Amino acid sequence: MANVLGAEHDLNFKETELCLGLPGGAGGNEVDNSPKNTGKRGFSETVDLKLNLQAKETGMDLNKNLENGSREKPVSAKDPAKPPAKAQVVGWPPVRSYRKNVMANNKSSGEESEKASSAAFVKVSMDGAPYLRKVDLKMYKSYQELSDALAKMFSSFTMGNYGSQGMIDFMNESKLMDLLNSSDYVPTYEDKDGDWMLVGDVPWQMFVDSCKRLRIMKGSEAIGLAPRAMEKCKSRG
Amino acid sequence: MSEDDERQQCPPSDLEFVSNKARNCNATGSGSGHPELQSVYLDQVLENVLENVLHFLTSKRDRNAASLVCKSWYRVEALTRSELFIGNCYAVSPARATARFARVRALHLKGKPRFADFNLMPPDWGAHFNPWALAMAKAYPWLEKVNLKRMSVTDDDLATLAELFLGFKELVLVCCDGFGTSGLAIFVNKCRQLKVLDLIESEVSDDESDWISCFPEGESHLESLIFDCVECHINFEALERLVARSPLLKKLRLNRYVSIGQLYHLMIRAPQLTHLGTGSFSPSEIAGQGDQEPDYVNAFAACKSLVCLSGFREIIPDYLPAIYIVCANLTSLNFSYANITAEQLKPIISKCHKLQVFWVLDSICDEGLQAVAATCKELRELRVFPVDAREDSDGPVSEVGLQAISEGCRKLQSILYFCQRMTNTAVIAMSKNCPDLVVFRLCIMGRHRADHVTGEPMDDGFGAIVMNCKKLTRLAVSGLLTDKAFDYIGRHGKLVRTLSVAFSGDSDMALKYVLEGCPQLQKLEIRDSPFGDAALRSGLHHYYSMRFLWMSSCRLTRHGCQEIARAMPRLVVEVIRSADEEEMDDAVEILYMYRSLVGPRTDTPKFVTIL
């Protein structure tokens, strides 16, 4: 499947064809762009991420989920990635945050094309973690910053070496293979076309524009995404 | 039903002191036969009669009054009260409530104070529904309706409601949080008699659970399904099938993930709808360019009973003409998420002759409000929200719009108006033109902003409101205000029950005027105003009659609040810190105090101290 990214952005990235879909993982999920006050969210300890992913396709797994969900949800701590308040004073003017968020999102409503949202929230899931999180990609300026934020969020996970520009060193085939063979976690993302990619293969801004959701998975599982990356390495090698 | 009609379930002091005096307010034994038996028999008859009569009493206030007549009436009223309203979930415990009232079918419970909506309260403060759910499950297995506002509800609570109450019919959650789509999935799946599921301005976490598919198969009893606040994708095919098998469905409010094309399909399946929330009101991104546009006008034309329209979450104004045909019948129109101009509004509003409730964004400008005033002569409630809710934003609406509304909509009862510029003249005009005003909430977004024409404080405007609007029960003030404004309120606001104050007043006198002058005051919420301990003391005579007092960023000290706590044992005095602050000096950041029959609660988080 041709990567449309290069064509859209009129950049010479046609070679960056690292787009293999994850089996059963894609979906038609649009990113949820509405910034939310995630400080008040609750998550169930027993929500099994994998079951949730499957539940989208079959109703049966959902029943399993229903039986599991019987514990009280501990409310999460304040999301470190919450955007800074625009107003100078907390809670003034007295408009509920739900409404404020909707308005911020719809600022350019009336235009049919993409909304100029002030934030780019994407869901972040991590294999084995009991709940989803959300991050605003526009809060960060590089992969390293994102990596640090994610590391704080999911403290048991480390993102591999990102190199000086914060991009995975795709040039080095063996480094890449090491990363993917290890039991370290690797971040992957779903782009606008619904394809799952390794995070770090495109320049940061392009990533922000095309990333719809993030999934942090074990390096060994991410290998399925890598063959194209390997090809690319080889062709440059 | 306006919030201001509601009263606390029972005035606390009376409950304890209903005496054990002879409750035999009936015949004494006559001389013949067995006097004791006879009197017992008569008691019984009287109680039966009372029970039958009290069944007709529905108003909370009437019931509270009846329960105070004597112990017999108290008992019978408790047996016959089927709708239990508790305005502050911490004022009474589940145990006490279930002990007193034996046959409750409907529970209406309110939790956090309103200022929590504006992030003034750290999260996890409390108001958990869980202990109530469990108590109800034991005491009222026949419970049918639950209405919660500003409570924390977990997925487990939803499961409890669905599993332990076999006849459960109605769930309304307003401004609640703590649950997600997986909780909803369990709830709708197990609740076989469900008629009403209304999720209003609640925060629902996206657990990626396809809850719409979980409604059981077969004909449903659904009459109302409101989920416009649910910020996640839903399974449209399942929703369409659900609507198709819900012949009684009258109210449907979709979230913004439903496109206008999908809306069309739903509308033609449910022409009997009376209340419709249109979802995004724009086409989905994946709709092909060459696809035939459905006949939206036809769909709206088919809905002959439509009286309430809302939604328009991501509106493409080109589609607005589709609704023209229903405008003449509309009594309620909510455009408060639709960023439209005056020009786009005019063709619609000019047809809405019967409109009584109108919520809109200030994007329509004063010109749009003038158009409203020209047509909507039946308008009772107006809310104008800001597109850009910042202090220094441009203000597209001003005193011009307010004046126009006051001149055109004489039957106005309730107004909420956000603006950047205002004059006393316009507010005074409204006070004279709209004598029926019950709710007046004016929010001049710039703090301490004076009348922009005269440079004077806004005292006279608000003064006129309390003087001329004799039915006023709810007031929210803003702009530059001196103590004089509060003097007016204390002198004339005799019916005021709810008062919201922010960045106002000069000294303690202001708060004194209000506490000493407003006998009906129940809910007082104050922020960032220069009121200190002395002012607080001036309300000692009144606090037991209030539901709560909130004061944040004022000039209160810990020992001042302690004094209050000592003087009033039935008051729960909570001192709340921002979650990340350490326990500091004597200054009190947030004071939240309320009367309670059960003393301090046991579920306080770390940042709350009860004095």
UniProtKB/TrEMBL annotation, chain A:
The listed locations are: Nucleus
What region holds the PB1 domain?
119-219
Q: Where is the composition biased (Basic and acidic residues)?
A: 69-81
Biological-process GO terms, alphabetical:
auxin-activated signaling pathway; regulation of DNA-templated transcription
Q: What keywords are annotated for this sequence in UniProt?
A: Auxin signaling pathway, Nucleus, Repressor, Transcription, Transcription regulation
Record InterPro entries: AUX/IAA_dom (IPR033389), AUX_IAA (IPR003311), PB1-like (IPR053793)
Q: Which Gene3D superfamilies match?
A: Phosphatidylinositol 3-kinase Catalytic Subunit, Chain A, domain 1
Subunit-structure text: Homodimers and heterodimers.
Its biological purpose: Aux/IAA proteins are short-lived transcriptional factors that function as repressors of early auxin response genes at low auxin concentrations.
Task: Name the species this protein comes from.
Answer: Hibiscus syriacus
Q: What is this protein called?
A: Auxin-responsive protein
Similarity comment text for this entry: Belongs to the Aux/IAA family.
UniProt-annotated stretches for the region Disordered:
25-45, 60-89
Q: Please provide one cellular component term from the Gene Ontology annotations of this protein.
A: nucleus
Main localisation, per the record?
nucleus
Query: Which taxonomic lineage is given here?
Result: Eukaryota, Viridiplantae, Streptophyta, Embryophyta, Tracheophyta
UniProtKB/TrEMBL annotation, chain B:
> Is Transport a UniProt keyword of this protein?
no
**Localization terms from the record:** Nucleus
Q: Where is the signal peptide?
A: none
Domain called Transport inhibitor response: residue spans: 103-148
Q: Which organism is it from?
A: Hibiscus syriacus (Rose of Sharon)
Report the protein name in the record. Answer: Transport inhibitor response 1-like protein
**Which chain positions lie within coiled-coil regions?**
none
Domain COI1 F-box, residue spans = 43-82
| Alphabetically ordered keywords of this record | Auxin signaling pathway, Nucleus, Ubl conjugation pathway
Cellular component (GO) terms are: nucleus; SCF ubiquitin ligase complex
Q: What is its main location?
A: nucleus
